[in-house]
Amino acid sequence: MNYCSGKILMRKRYKAGILIFFAMIVFLNSCDNIFSPRLDNTAATSILTDQKTIEGVFQNFKYAYTFKDTTVYGNLLGQDFVFTYRDYTSGFDESWDRATDMRTTNGLFRNSQKLEVVWNNIIFQGGDSLEQNVKRSFNFTITFNPGDVVRINGFADMNFRRNTAEDIWKIVRWRDESF
Fold it and tell me: Structure pTM?
């Protein structure tokens, strides 16, 4: 074999090697691993909302409790948030501010195994594009452990506010009417 024919043969092998290399890449990328199936992203939607609607706030509330996410929960509350509940032992209403609510909710998130919030019918909704009042029934299940499950049913009477129609809704007042 002379020098020229050897060089031509090497070029052919080089081209064939490149073609085989690219064919292998295409082949490997087209294979599906049955032990690691691809994710179906065709219907990929976030379970979090942008809170541009009142229903979106309720959806994010449910997410925050389900996944015990204090960051999402904190984003639901306005800076002037007030939580009010009836202390049936004393017979008086008790209230606390945003900071106390965040500490209390964080304690609940940390000390429970599972939280489940089911938002039911809206009993009342009124207001305008910047302020809304919503009274809605709910079921709330707290599982501290398999032998300690608390079920609460009641109504949440909430006031929502936003500065402009383009802003997100925030809860500014929540009156818990559980029984």
Answer: 0.74
